[in-house]
């Protein structure tokens, strides 16, 4: 019973922490660290929420969550008789866990199908351009720049983007897209998109997805400015924002007008680095959440 109470308290703490974290002001100064914190909060919340129900459900076995589920799957008799409340908790816990896993798998499969179809389409309507080697160019007048993530990743720009941007600005945009590919930001976003699908009514889930989408763009900006001028990247973003850029296809990652000014401001006027004590504190918090929550699935308190 104590394990269930601790897991329930941890789930509530993660939910409250996520709600408070949506208004945190330091995240733009350390987007990679903020992404890690968001991931740890999400994983801990999911495990704690389902674990609390399952810990109560397997209480008749007088063991932890995982050992209790194994014993139930083997058909072993519990030390105490089942009652309707424990049965209901077992059904609710397994259902919630199954929903989270299935939604995550379905979101991943849909993204893979969308990217496979888009690669087939690109083979028909795009071409190579000696001016931007290794990049597929779309014959489209609107400005577009995005990447197709995956094992066979591709960076795509449109003829409209080539005409809109200078050579230095295009190099900055390509460095940004290459950062998305290299750091697999599509995998970072996938669990949050799945959580939003599982909890469409949750404002916290919607805010978390929006925050992480902005943070991965900022992280890619930080990576790109190692190879180009931050002002060139900021100018390119402003040009995309004012030119009415073509929407990024589903499942891809690209330049769009959403939150452009927040990204431009930090590129032109970067804030001070996050204090080392704050950085280490959030790292410790993330490690603690990702360690203690699975541990509570194994032991019985």
Task: Give a written overview of the molecule.
- The chain has helices at about 1-20, 30-55, 65-75, 85-125, 160-165, 165-185, 185-200, 205-225, 230-245, 260-270, 275-300, and strands spanning about 125-130, 135-140, 145-150, 155-160, 255.
- The protein has about 300 residues and is mostly helical.
- It has a domain at about 130-270.
- A five-stranded mixed sheet has the order 1-2-4-3-5, sandwiched between helices.
- Strand 1 and strand 2 form a beta hairpin.
- Helix 2 (about 30-55) runs antiparallel to helix 8.
- This is M56 family metallopeptidase.
- It comes from Nonomuraea purpurea.
- Belongs to the peptidase M48 family.
Short description:
Helix content is 67%, strand content 6%. A five-stranded mixed β-sheet has the order 1-2-4-3-5, with helices on both faces. The protein has helices at residues 2-21, 31-57, 65-73, 84-125, 159-164, 167-183, 185-198, 203-224, 230-243, 260-268, 276-298, and strands spanning 126-128, 135-138, 145-148, 154-158, 253-254.
